[in-house]
């Protein structure tokens, strides 16, 4: 194999595929990234067997030559070193030459690296997916959907299926749900489909995969293709494929958990409420339980308090528009803060159904998302 | 005690004194910061018994009222909480009230914190220093002196005196030296003195103290007063005092270590040489010994190489202007990189006296600083 390539473009793609590579893998070849040069361009692959990323660099783009292939071939190089090396190379171009025994030479400017490569034949093949179950949505929308759900997945391995985000369709709309059983984040979005009758449920993508995907997809409205199979999902972008395995097991039915009634509804400004909770959390964090108390007062005020026996107490009264009964409840303040941070609307409603029942936070201007929380018993 | 104060100004000073507070102290009162309100303004103190910082906030500055004292007094509050709380308070002003039993109320905007304070009488008094041994230098100069020396102090506690930077005078010039016995950084600077005959030596300031001081002093040329006593040093700025204990023990005589002869001198451009070494370090770091090899070639080139048996080899040829004999030497690349990063001159000379002897790196345009390194034996 022998090719030369524009350094900046190569660095970007090497960094993208390296996101899939784990240093803690038990399969030695997966510590490397696979580089293939054929007559169309360069293909890079990185994988930790849960996530696989494949990128393609064409010979030219918009009339500018990016790659010049002098001899086709392939090699696997240690991802960690290779990514750092290409980033630090001095020249505008990089030449990569593979000789006998996978001995690889990288030249750029005055710099010459001789690296020990690995046998590309040992590198596992990526899954070939049937492209039956396919839908599309814009990249920036997908990025938002991930941001507004993935924080709520469980970090405990006791119920593995809860460490993922569940995807399902409902009347043609995509519904994404994450819950750790104390809080739930739900996000709806419209999608484009080839087959208008497309329906699916219980497609659970690991939270970690979505977090990595979110770092790669860009903030533009180019469409991303999503292919779903029995145990894999594939996100297809221009010149980049992102594969993730799906989590096994039955995702809980969450629709019925969401209360449809209300005993008390408080309307609050999102950002000031968030800041009030952050101040209250300074003390409740100390006790490591994050408990914050909310109490409605007369005259349209809500009192937020939290107590740390050693350090002290914080009290804050904030204005609200209230409907329904007087209310007193305690909750995990950190969970509410996490949710308020991803709500883009200026005002929210908190809908309570009782001091011991789950409550809902939702924006006042649309129903694209909602957040559900269990209260905390403090007696 | 009862006073109100401008929040932004208070936040800044609370953060400054908190830099001296360690959470790992064995003296409980030192986890707090001391706040004193008297008729002149507010004094804040933080200390970990090695470093102490005292700041003063006057009643008004440039005609603007900053503090309004309603009742004089003092209190000690938990530094970690207090610093976070004042940073997050919603109002433009903060009101602080101490009642019985050190119960402290902090009000700002809609927020009310009730904190358990500690007895200010228990807080240790700061040392009272005789202001005999005093010199002055601009803040930005001091910041540079610290930056260009402190990285070279020892991190090993086997010879405690080497964990500090040594200050001494030589013919009216201040000389600052740091060494971990493998490398040495030396920085000279002129100082202003009250007593023209001022001389001192073996004033060893802990590296950690200087690193903290460096975060506080500003990038301007206002003069800073330095008071040196038997076992303390005090840096006096406008409204801020920074005390540090001095290290005990005899600092090694380093002047005689610096070679005055040269067998080979290489002139190199600082930044390209630094980048070459950073690339070479990518591989030598792997073996955890950081060894980089340098060899002069014919025709005005220097070859830099490093090898990691598992990963591979890197070779780079760079241009130089050479005087003297051909040369081959190995060194700890990380140490050289550390030094090159703090050299502000565009070109340097590396002065060798033999493959097994210490060598010097110095800027070509002045003699304010030099760096000395031991070579590494590779056979």
Description:
Two copies of one chain form a homodimer. Chain A is α+β, with helices and mostly antiparallel strands. Chain A folds into three domains: 2-122, DNA Polymerase III, Chain A, domain 2, CATH 3.10.150.10; 133-255, DNA Polymerase III, Chain A, domain 2; 260-373, Roll (DNA Polymerase III, Chain A, domain 2). In chain A, 17% of the residues lie in helices and 44% in strands. In chain A, strands 8-2-3-4-20-19-18-12-16 form a nine-stranded antiparallel beta sheet. Chain A has a nine-stranded antiparallel beta sheet with strand order 17-13-14-15-29-28-27-21-25. In chain A, helix 1 packs antiparallel against helix 2, helix 3 (139-147) crosses helix 4 and helix 5 runs antiparallel to helix 6 (333-342). The model of chain A has no long low-confidence stretch (mean pLDDT 94). The A-B interface holds A 78, 81, 84-85, 88-90, 104, 110-116, 272, 275-276, 278-279, 282-283, 286, 310-318 and B 78, 81, 84-85, 88-90, 104, 110-116, 272, 275-276, 278-279, 282-283, 286, 310-318. Chains A, B: GO terms for molecular function: 3'-5' exonuclease activity; DNA binding; DNA-directed DNA polymerase activity.
Give me the Rg of chain A, rounded: 25 Å
Q: Mind telling me which CATH architecture of the largest domain in chain A this is?
A: Roll
Content of β-strand of chain A = 35-45%
Taking the alpha carbons of the first and last residues of chain A, their distance comes to: 70 Å
Biggest sheet statistics of chain A: 9 strands, antiparallel
Mean pLDDT of chain A: 94
CATH classification, class level of the largest domain in chain A: Alpha Beta
The structural domain count of chain A equals: 3
Oligomer: homodimer
Number of helices of chain A: 6
Query: Unreliable segments of chain A (pLDDT under 50, ≥5 consecutive)?
Result: none
Shape of chain A: elongated
Biggest interface, which chains? A-B, 32 and 32 residues
Superfamily (CATH H level) name of the largest domain in chain A: DNA Polymerase III, subunit A, domain 2
């Amino acid at each position: 194999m022998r090719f030369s390539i524009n350094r900046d473009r190569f660095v970007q793609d090497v960094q993208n595929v390296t996101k899939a590579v784990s240093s803690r893998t038990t399969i030695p070849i997966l510590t490397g990234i696979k580089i293939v040069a054929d007559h169309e361009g360069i293909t890079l692959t990185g994988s930790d067997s849960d996530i696989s990323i494949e990128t393609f660099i064409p010979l030219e783009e918009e009339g500018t030559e990016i790659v010049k292939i002098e001899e086709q071939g392939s090699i696997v190089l240690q991802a960690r070193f290779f990514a750092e090396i290409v980033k630090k190379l001095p020249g505008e171009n990089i030449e990569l030459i593979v000789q006998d025994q996978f001995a690889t030479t990288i030249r750029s400017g005055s710099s010459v690296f001789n690296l020990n490569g690995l046998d590309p034949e040992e590198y596992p093949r990526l899954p070939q997916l049937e492209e039956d179950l396919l839908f599309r949505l814009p990249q920036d929308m997908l990025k938002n959907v991930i941001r507004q759900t993935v924080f709520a997945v469980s970090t405990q391995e006791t119920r593995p299926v809860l460490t993922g985000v569940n995807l399902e369709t409902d009347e043609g709309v995509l519904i994404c749900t994450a819950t750790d059983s104390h809080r739930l984040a739900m996000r709806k979005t419209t999608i484009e489909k080839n087959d208008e009758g497309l329906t699916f449920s219980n497609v659970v993508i690991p939270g970690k995969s979505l977090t990595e995907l979110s770092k790669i997809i860009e903030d533009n409205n180019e469409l991303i293709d999503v292919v779903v199979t029995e145990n894999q999902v594939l996100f297809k972008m221009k010149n980049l494929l992102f594969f993730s395995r799906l989590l096994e097991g039955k995702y809980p039915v969450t629709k019925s958990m969401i209360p449809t009634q209300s005993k008390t509804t408080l309307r609050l400004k999102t950002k000031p409420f968030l800041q009030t909770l952050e101040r209250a959390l300074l003390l409740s964090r100390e006790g490591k339980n994050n408990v914050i108390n909310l109490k409605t007062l007369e005259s349209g005020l809500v009192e937020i308090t939290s107590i740390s026996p050693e350090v002290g107490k914080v009290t804050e009264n904030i204005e609200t528009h209230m409907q329904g009964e007087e209310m007193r409840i305690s909750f995990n303040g950190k969970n509410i803060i996490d949710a308020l941070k991803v709500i883009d609307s200026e005002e929210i409603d908190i809908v309570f159904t009782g001091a011991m029942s789950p409550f809902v936070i939702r924006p006042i201007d649309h129903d694209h998302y909602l957040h559900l929380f269990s209260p905390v018993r403090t007696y």
